Amino acid sequence: MRETLTRLRYRYWPDHLLGEILSKRWTETAIPVILLLIVGFALSRSLEHFLSASSLADTARQAGEIGFIGLGMALVVIVGGIDLSVGSIFALTDFCALYLLDVLNWPVPAVVVVTMIVGGLLGAVNGVLIGYLRLRAFITTLITLIIYRSAYDLLIQRYSNAIASAFPDIPSWDFIGGRSVFGIPSVALVYIVIAIFGHVFLTRLRPGWHITAIGGSRRSAYNSGIPVRRTIALCYVASGVLTSIGALFFAARLGTVGGDIGVGLEVIVLTATVLGGITLGGGKGSVVKSMVGVLVVLLVTNGLTAMNARGGVNRMALATILLAAAMVDIRWQKNRTRIISKVYVAPTYHALPPPPPTEIGSGGPFEQNDKLRDVSLIGLGRIEAPEDVILDRNDVLYAGSRHGDIIRFFPPDYERMEVFAHIGGQPLGMAFDKEDNLYVCIGGMGLYRITPDGTVEKATDETNRSIYSVNDDSRLRLADDLDITDDGLIFFSEATVRYEMDEWPVDGLEARGNGRIICYDTKTGTTHTALRGLKFPNGVAVASDGQSILFAETFGCSIKRYWFTGPKKGDVETVMDNLPGYPDNINLASDGNYWLALVGMRSPSLDLAWKMPGFRRRMAKRVPVDEWLFPNINTGCVVKFNEQGKILESFWDLKGLNHPMITSMREHRGYLYLGGIANNRIGRFKLDNADPDFVQYDKRWGKSS
Asked: Where are the transmembrane segments (predicted)?
């Protein structure tokens, strides 16, 4: 009964949902709740005009004015700083605009330009002190807040009467202050234009990437050659300019230089920034988040004002929201990994029958032997982590390296080696097409193509998103192995959609169907997901009928067959189940059968733990990762099987001296070439009774021209 309840619990638990909630900061998930409060304002009888056209227009004007300041604050926070002086800069540039217009009678274009220059200079003071002199942003901007506010107070004592007595009638100034275009306030239109540019700047242009990189890790950005100090200084300059633009629209709308202008504005803008989801730690944020935060804060404060709440209540509400959002944001950044490891990991019930015997003398098809004892070694100590190996029509041997390279060894002795191509990620499965292009699955990057001259091209790094998944699973996390059909369809496995390559043990801990088979069409360049819900799918091989593929489920300890065309299109059947080990790559043999690598052998302890999801959940919470129960990957073997699932032969290295872990094998001209992701060599084993002329791609597609 207990096992049945456990199955039901983990079968129907929406595993993506909780992880998605935790992977988003609280400040982002709180926005819908606050929006519901705003709807409550609108439905209140005492606020029946809260969402009227005039009220929304006023809100749009305020959102535009404060939104400019919010954009500047967003830049500063993303780069890893903070600017508490924006309220004082706002007041000073407001005074500057009105003084130039009302007292000096300057033309409006000159007023606009000079005011923006003044705002940039005020921001540049912060930029030089923080960016170049490397002073603390908080204390520096707090001091400039006081200095700028004191300067403003001194200026309005002398010139406030002269500004207040002037009533300029200038159409262009009036347009800036309150006119609309198609019912949209001018300030909102300008704000939208600048916001769109800001979005493109942060997401599509190199300087925007530099800002995000500096906020993520200032030291790493410096080591990468990014001008850190200059970029930080320019962010503060941009903040000052954007603040002055907001002040220009405010000055044109109200034309006042009162003593309370800009007071508390830094709290409003900072609350909007944090509430919108821009992390205070830097390195993460967007223009859209800034816009949402500003809009929410304004609607909340305007709603409270319409309810006749005192100014102190508004400020108290904003301060409370800011405090709560900042606390959760900071605590989340500090404990993110720990929280996710405790809650996001969702083990499921996974029962396997007892494995077939492998002991010497058992007499079964998996009976251990020492046939791989005399395997010869290629590239010993000169290559690391050759997960897959492959040979071309000219007998050149290719293998991946953990350093992100494709290494090739030249016949006949395979002593001479060179870097064929540098990709940057861990190469996994490989396959040649008819034109001798080498397609490679790259962990964390996707599917790539290497032309015969060594040019690296991206084939695809995404697929269609699952409709029912809360997480966006369109990005490829762990493309693993592949094969190519005669029609140019590439079927490749993605072992997991939940974890990155270095986190594969967590996927094994869950033992749930997180993997999928993906199809890439080389003719159209389109990608789609063919199969979902697989338990760490791995090896892929096109079957002899050309209408189906064989694929391995590593943690399912099985080989399955999927028909992608023909009368059985869409069907999946099990070819072999209950293997004694964990299947990896599958490749064609010269006699029409298939080679299969067992990367490691099952253990009774892990088989038992897979039946106890609660135990594995507690293990993930309380035990370090290096002390978890792992699949045994120290001893593996190679087996030959046919399409009916019958094991024809097995090859072992009992002492594990040459190949303690085997992840792939290729038959070529009478030899079996062995790869292993934890090895520092490639094995070469002489096969008895094998076709000495067998070349996989010649057999499938004929000789190249």
From this structure: 68-92, 104-125, 132-151, 181-202, 233-255, 261-280, 287-307
